[in-house]
Amino acid sequence: MKYKLLLTGKYTTIIDTFFNHLTQYECITTSSRYDDMARHVELYHPDILVVCLQDEDPAMFKRIGTLMNRFSEEKFYVFIIGEDEECADFQKKTGALANREIHKPLSPAKISKLIDDYMIDHPRSNRNQEEDAGLPYTDSGSSKPQKQETEEEKLMRILQSIDEEDLSDATPPAGSDQQSSVDSLSQNDSSASKKHILVIDDDPLMLKVIKDYLHDDYDIATAKGGKIAYKFLEKKKTDLILLDYEMPEEDGPTVYKKIRALPGMEQIPILFLTGVSDKTRIMSVLALKPQGYLLKPIDYATLISTITPILKE
Question: Distance between CA atoms of 268 and 229, rounded to whole angstroms?
């Protein structure tokens, strides 16, 4: 079984370890803001919330406690990773909320063994197995009525079942039939009155989440990198571009400059998406003079309040 992990905390080195060396797990990150964590739990239904501790604000512990109370029926586990004293402080201030502590020194093999051993000894309920199959569930021995799958849960289940290759606009080869589907994407299932948004990001899950947030009100196209975006913009128009700052082949600044050099793209609003919040990086983002930036993970309310005035201009 491929466990779903929701990662949070300031210990970014160990978060990178999960993405680079622990690829047997399905991982996404969230900020320590309560609204972001709650939104990701609602959409993602993690098996484990992994809190990567490093000089954390004590208020974060309270937010996680509130999160666990709110989502008590989700039955996901809490693991904490950090120094011995950091883990002890977390447990003390949350009333021993964490199900497992993982202390330094760390290695991918050690982390993997501790996670897998715990999950084998503490399997999640039949409810979760039924959810994985896409079925409504009833808790064993519970008198509660059967819980029906919500529209949001259904959407995420469908999206998670789609491989990256199945995305109609996820890096098809130039000139292929799939490329034509990208070019016509903005015309599908949309009215002429809808504003168009192009989202450029190498992370398929991020593309899916933003598309989920916006597709009811806007005509959305997505591209997994600059090459697909350029092909799209050669033939189609857009009203706003959401551009990931850090991508493997061509980074956000490179893509930004190339888009600005395309005919008619000099004034199209571009917002950067960045997972880095330090002052130096933000200043480098703003030096390119975009219309603004949004910090990952993307918060729905912030996204809407940022793009709405831009698209009304």
Answer: 14
CATH number belonging to the domain at 4-124, selected among 3.40.50.300, 3.20.20.70, 3.40.50.720, 3.40.50.2300: 3.40.50.2300
Over its C-alpha atoms, the chain yields an Rg (Å, rounded) of: 21
Q: What distances in angstroms separate CA 115 from CA 9, 119, 173, 259, 311, one per listed residue? A: 18, 6, 39, 44, 45
Q: What is the rounded CA–CA span in Å between residue 268 and residue 85?
A: 50
The alpha helices in 201-298, defined as continuous H runs, are 204-214, 226-235, 252-261, 279-286
Whether omega for the bond prior to residue 105 falls within 30 degrees of 0, making it cis, is: yes
Mean pLDDT for the chain overall: 78
Residue 127 pLDDT > 70:
no
Instruction: Give 137's contacts (C-beta < 8 A, 6+ positions apart).
Output: 126, 127, 130, 131, 146, 147
* Sequence ranges of the domains in the chain: 4-124, 166-312
pTM value is: 0.45
289's CB contacts (< 8 A; 6+ apart) are none
Sequence-distant (≥ 6) Cβ neighbours of residue 123 within 8 angstroms: none
Task: Answer yes or no: CATH 1.10.10.60 is held by domain 166-312.
Answer: no
* Cβ-contact 98, 114 below 8 angstroms: no
Q: Is the pLDDT of residue 78 over 90?
A: yes
pLDDT of residue 134: 38
Residue 282 pLDDT: 66
259 has a pLDDT exceeding 60: yes
Where does the pLDDT of residue 161 fall: very low under 50, low under 70, confident under 90, or very high at 90 and above?
very low
β-pair partners for 272: 243, 293
